[in-house]
């Protein structure tokens, strides 16, 4: 059976079928199951940001259908040096995903995904797992705050020491210029 014939068997369903008065109403749509040729209905995760046009237009394997509510506006990047020159990498981005046809029951429910650094993920996280990661990272933030405080203190001391040395050098050079006896002492 051709793709167009299989697609024709699926009922025509608009991609955006939701209550226009409720922004949190999830989209509903239908795709053709590539394994069975039968139509499958999907109710998106509320706030899903994926375009499912390709899933609707061509038969798809159910396990390849997923939803997430990721926003690129929330993406954070940092300059990370992996080869001698800093490069911008996405770090600590988080979003919610659901895989409605997953063989793993836990992935059918919404779960959290954390992108630790570009394309390196912690997944799937249930609410307790996400809270554990948050607590662990909060502890690291406190450690970073302690390092920051120590860095500020050490730099202040270093600058004061440099200022004293510069003052002594200036004083010695001034004395030498005036050829005062205290400059040689």
Would you kindly provide a written description of the structure presented here, covering whatever features stand out?
This protein folds into 2 domains: 3-125, no CATH class; 140-183. It has helices at 3-9, 53-57, 105-108, 127-177, and strands at residues 28-32, 39-43, 67-68, 77-81, 86-98, 111-117, 120-125. The protein is 36% helix and 23% strand. The model is unreliable at 1-16 (pLDDT under 50). Strands 3, 4, 5, 6 and 7 form a 5-stranded antiparallel beta sheet that branches. The N and C termini lie far apart (101 Å). It is α+β, with helices and mostly antiparallel strands and 185 residues long. The chain is built from 4 helices and 7 strands.
Low-pLDDT segments: 1-16
Number of strands: 7
Order of helices and strands: HEEHEEEHEEH
What count of structural domains? Answer: 2
What is the fold's blueprint, element by element?
Elements (H helix, E strand, L loop, with lengths): L2 H7 L18 E5 L6 E5 L9 H5 L9 E2 L8 E5 L4 E13 L6 H4 L2 E7 L2 E6 L1 H51 L8
Antiparallel strand pairs: 1-2, 3-5, 4-5, 5-6, 6-7
What attributes does this structure have?
alpha+beta; 4 helices; 23% strand; elongated; 185 residues; two-stranded antiparallel sheet; disordered N terminus
Summarize the structure.
Helices cover 36% and strands 23% of the residues. It has 4 helices and 7 strands; from the N terminus they run αββαβββαββα.
